[in-house]
Amino acid sequence: MSELGKYAPLTYFQLMEVSLRELLVEKGVVSDAEVDAVAADMKSRGFERGAKVVARAWSDPAYKRRLLADGSAACEELGLDIPALRLVVVENTPAVHNVIVCTLCSCYPRMLLGLPPDWYKSRNYRSRVVREPRAVLAEFGTRLPDQVAIRVHDSTADMRYMVLPLRPAGTEDWSEERLAGIVTRDSMIGVALAKAT
Amino acid sequence: MAAEALAARFKPGDRVRVMKAYPLGHIRTPYYIRGCSGVIERICGAFPNPEELAQMRSGLPAQPLYRVRFAQAEVWPDYRGGRDDTVDVEIFQHWLDKAAE
């Protein structure tokens, strides 16, 4: 809690987490060091893995086909461990824009994108993006013409989703590494577009 | 995928309707989509039934899980957006019935 920088009463869920963690440590099920190590690993994980997958798909059409057919298997090719058959990659095209949400809780492709941003878990985003996706996208600065179909993907069960953004024009001769540098977290959630910067 | 799994009753392209039921418990079928009809986009495989798992039971036999595509204009009567806008939702087989073509 020290990173909050000020004293505040614990919320119901924070209290539940502390109680459960202390009980598990007391009973010898896990140690404090193990809990810290897992938390540090989760916090250190960013969206670089996802960006790497996107850059490869942009650069290699055969890889892109495999990625869209079986996301988990295609990630494994790059040495990324994703549970079998669980990752669905959805492709943005000039005619279709995809966006991801979990209306029931906050399911998120953590193995590729790290921890979800707070807004992704907010009730506001979760309830509105499924009902008025164009308005929500506009709040992220993403305005799409009506001719572009918007496909919302609600991760309600065992699948996890990642958007393969549209490759920006003017990046035709870019290396895979340079391409990975312009892939943002938000473009892989689908609330933003990848831009050549 | 669980070894003990029910056979898939639907295939991609089939028109289905989500049951309009409100049982208590841990349900992964969102309220907003109950009663709506859509088209099977793909079969995701079979997974232990989360409603049973939440009760500390095995969830077996595993339930086929589908991605069902719904037209936004049908889900929200006052929807504002393109006519081709859709929402894809993962629905377990026991929540689906065959819908009229």
Structural class of chain A: alpha/beta
SSE series of chain B: EEHEHEE
Return Rg of chain B in Å. Answer: 14 Å
Quick one: biggest sheet of chain B? 5 strands, antiparallel
Round the mean pLDDT of chain A to the nearest integer and report it.
93
Strand order of the largest sheet of chain B: 4-3-2-1-5
Tally the structural domains of chain A.
2
Summarize the largest interface: chains and residue counts.
Answer: A-B, 25 and 28 residues
Helix-residue proportion of chain A: 40-55%
Portion in helices of chain B: under 10%
Largest sheet of chain A: 2 strands, parallel
- Work out the helix count of chain A: 11
**What overall form of chain A do the CA principal axes indicate?**
globular
Tell me which oligomeric state these chains represent. Answer: heterodimer
CATH topology of chain B, by name, is SH3 type barrels
How would you name the CATH homologous superfamily of the largest domain in chain A?
A: Nitrile hydratase alpha /Thiocyanate hydrolase gamma
Name the beta content range of chain B: 25-35%
Query: Could you spell the SSE succession of chain A in H and E letters?
Result: HHHHHEEHHHHEEHH
Descriptive keywords:
heterodimer; A: 197 residues; alpha/beta; 2 domains; globular; B: 101 residues; mainly beta; SH3 type barrels
Q: What features would you describe in this structure?
A:
The complex is a heterodimer of chains A (197) and B (101). With 197 residues, chain A is of the alpha/beta class. Chain A has 11 helices and 4 strands; from the N terminus they run αααααββααααββαα. Chain A has 2 domains: 10-44, no CATH class; 48-189, Nitrile hydratase alpha /Thiocyanate hydrolase gamma (Nitrile Hydratase, Chain A). Chain A is 44% helix and 11% strand. Chain A is globular, with a radius of gyration of 19 Å. The model of chain A has no long low-confidence stretch (mean pLDDT 93). With 101 residues, chain B is mainly beta. Helices cover 8% and strands 34% of the residues of chain B. Chain B contains 2 helices and 5 strands, in the order ββαβαββ. Chain B has helices at residues 50-53, 72-75, and strands spanning 15-18, 37-47, 63-71, 86-92, 96-98. Chain B has a 5-stranded antiparallel β-sheet. The longest helix of chain B is centred in the middle third of the chain and has 4 residues, at 50-53. The model of chain B has no long low-confidence stretch (mean pLDDT 94). The chains are: A alpha/beta (197), B mainly beta (101). The interface between A and B is medium-sized, with 25 and 28 residues. β3 (149-154) of chain A pairs parallel with β4 (86-92) of chain B.
